[in-house]
Amino acid sequence: MSGGKGTECARRRLWRWRDNPLRRREDVVEAWIVLVMLVVAVLGGALVGTVATRAIDQDLARQRADRHPVQAVLLTDTPSSTPANSPRLTAMVRWTAPDGTVQTGRAPVDEGLRAGTTITVWQDDRGVLVPPPPDPTEARVEAVLLGCAAALAFVGVTYAATALARRRLDRRRYDRWAAEWALIGPLLDRRTS
Fold first, then answer.
1. How confident is the model at residue 1 (pLDDT cuts 50, 70, 90)?
2. Is 33 helix (H, G, I), strand (E, B) or coil?
3. Residue 79 pLDDT greater than 70, yes or no
4. Average pLDDT of span 40-52
């Protein structure tokens, strides 16, 4: 006994490629659409994911290069505790920008600090306060996750386009079956009555 369950399954899936009196043109078109979709999804998804990962990784590396820590002085006391569901605590701070001017603004701070405490904040090359950049490990993980999300989005769009094309083919098949039934149905009704 040669073959088996796997061989039978492969035969059923590949029936559209063989000569068969029941095979219609739409069946062959559908087989090609599915094959092309698989190739596009695999290769395109890998390409989109790789390009997105590299672009995000480069952007995060640029952030790390453009953002610099600077010492700032806290201008107000911060509360010793905040409710658990409140947003991150911010307070007014003063720091020196790269051009030498003294700047003031709001920055995230820890609880329970007194005015005059020196804290570290992050600024860009223009002296604007910015969030700290992710470290290289965090940046790599973020880039990979976003690259995977981009690849999955591409595969999803590819699948949706394929499903739409297959639905149109099904509609054509149903229309052809209805037309054929309109020709054959009355003949069968005369035989059975």
1. very low
2. helix
3. yes
4. 96
Same domain, 128 and 79: yes
What are the residues whose beta carbons fall under 8 Å from the beta carbon of 82, sequence distance 6 or more? 89, 111
Q: How far apart are CA 148 and CA 85, in angstroms?
A: 31
Of 132, 155, 175, which residue constitutes the final position of a domain? Answer: 132
Strands, DSSP E only, in 83-123? 90-96, 102-108, 118-123
Is 73 within 8 Å of 94 (Cβ atoms)?
yes
Same domain, 115 and 155: no
Question: In the numeric block, which tokens belong to residue 101?
Answer: 């001017």
pLDDT band at 40 (very low <50, low <70, confident <90, very high): very high
95-108 burial by CB neighbour count: b if 16+ within 10 A, else e? bebeeeeebebebb
pLDDT given at position 80: 75
pLDDT of residue 2 exceeding 50, the answer is yes
Q: Per the confidence metrics, is the pTM higher than 0.85?
A: no
Q: Domain count of the chain?
A: 2
129-130 and 118-123 beta bridge pairing: antiparallel
Shared domain for 25 and 115, answered yes or no, is: no
